Amino acid sequence: MIKENSIGVFDSGVGGLTVLKEMVKLLGNEDYIYFGDNLHAPYGERSNSDIKSLSFKIADFLVLNKCKMLVIACNTIVASAFEDIKKRYNIPIIEVVSNGVKAAVSVTKNNNIAVMATPFTVSTDVYSRTIKSINANASVTEIPCKTLCAMIESVWGNSDEHYDALKEYVSEIPQNVDTLVLGCTHYPIVINDIKKCFDKNIVDPAYETAILSKEVLEQNNLLNSKGTKGNIIFYTSGDTEVFKFLGENILGFSLENIEHIKL
Q: Which residue among the candidates 74, 145, 149, 197 is catalytic per the annotation?
């Protein structure tokens, strides 16, 4: 592997840009290739076989483009395909679930943790299993948010309907919970609205994922040593203009180099 090669980051849509944003802050001299499969989003309502098939196609594309590391910035893909993806490629693979879990376990004071995630992620029980593997005394409530990801993908805005749906999901969190994990990388996009409904610990796995990515690059001697700002190429299977609009609102800077790729 070559240090100057790009880092591949991928998600079912724009949610993974929350992870990319933290990585660019921490590893600004790295080059990135981001793939958002907006055409097939949301993944949380798809079958396991569909999710795996789409995930393999994206990962294959990134590896063919000589990415030195892959970051799976989608909890649903992690729940469905992480182990298979890890076996498929001989490069470092980073995922968001374990990083969010470690942060939640470290900040909770009473071992009562809630997770908001897609229905598929909840159905796999991946968060409960991972949390309890670290802290057997933890009580975990997982809340399937069927419509939230799709609403965010369709431009959240100030819609009362969207906010009411969000409040309904948050209302399912038990009163004794002191820590909420955002178990979908789309959800940090509306974290300010979530904070209006839940005023305790909120864990966004994006930052922890960026920290681990740096550590893994260091361990594998893959840190890009160039002193200039890195380049980002964006690919989407969906509408490039919609992706550009959403992406610029998430990342806070103008998006260039957006290409449409049909999966």
A: 74
* Residue 74 designated active-site: yes
Q: Which of 67, 145, 149, 184 is catalytic?
A: 184
Mean pLDDT per 10-residue segment, the chain (263 residues): 94 96 97 97 92 98 98 97 96 96 97 97 96 97 94 73 91 98 94 95 94 97 92 97 92 94 90
Residue type, position 255, single letter: L
- Long-range contacts (CB closer than 8 Å, 24 or more residues apart) made by 224-228: 224/3, 224/4, 224/27, 224/29, 224/30, 224/31, 225/3, 226/4, 226/29, 227/29, 228/29
| Model confidence pTM above 0.85 | yes
Domains, the chain, ordered by start: 7-95+207-260 (3.40.50.1860), 97-205 (3.40.50.1860)
